[in-house]
Specification:
The chain is mainly α. It folds into two domains: 146 residues, no CATH class; 39 residues, no CATH class. The longest helix is centred in the C-terminal third of the chain and has 24 residues.
Length: 205
């Protein structure tokens, strides 16, 4: 599979010859939309990131011409950072998950990853971050996704279904990262910010 679809192939993109005009494509998709929502185009002029948020159909068209392993799943189809959040479960726990499925479709599983990566890159540029500052978290993100998939593959199917991310665990992970890289400590119990309960400290109580 890696011979047929090497990882480097995902770094390449050439717009297909039949790629429609972006504005015309968006207007065509708007025929079924309520009149109250047609001011979407005015908001899309604000930045590249906002344009991406309002053109999921165009992004899907472009992704359809990119390299794929052929493995398809039910993807979200629209995964910018704002479409993730915390939710309460019946067990009274907070979990971290997607919250937007109005663009869902059966498609290659990497589409959601590319969607999120593109969103983060554009959002970083919009906030004045350098290309390096935008790329580093994306490389980490891709590595984490790969390791998570490898672990899931080794688990029984029922455990994959019930796999979830607790918000409390995420807060503790963020807490540890701040202590390690900002406070210069790899043990949160020795961190002065933790002892003082600094409200700005990730994960602090």
């Amino acid at each position: 599979m890696r011979t047929r679809v090497p990882r480097t192939s995902h770094a390449e993109f050439s717009p297909p010859a039949n790629r429609p005009d972006a504005v015309a494509f968006a207007r065509d998709a708007d025929r079924e939309r309520r009149r109250a929502l047609t001011d979407l185009y005015a908001r899309m002029f604000a930045s590249s990131f906002v344009f991406l948020r309002g053109s999921a159909n165009l992004m899907t068209f472009d992704l359809a011409s990119t390299a794929t392993t052929g493995w398809r799943v039910q993807v979200s189809g629209d995964t910018p950072p704002a479409n993730f959040g915390a939710f309460a479960t019946c067990e009274r726990q907070l979990v971290f998950d997607l919250n937007d499925f109005d663009e869902t479709l059966c498609a290659p599983w990497k589409w959601d990853l590319k969607w999120l990566a593109t969103s983060v890159m554009l959002l970083g540029r919009e906030n004045g971050l350098s290309p390096t500052a935008c790329t580093l978290p994306l490389a980490t993100y891709a590595g984490v996704c790969g390791r998570a998939l490898a672990r899931a593959h080794a688990r029984p199917e029922i455990r994959r279904v019930w796999r979830h991310m607790l918000v409390a665990a995420m807060a503790w992970a963020g807490h540890w990262l701040v202590c390690s890289y900002v406070c210069g400590s790899d043990r949160t119990r020795s961190c002065g910010l933790c002892r003082r309960g600094n409200a700005g400290h990730v994960g602090a109580s």
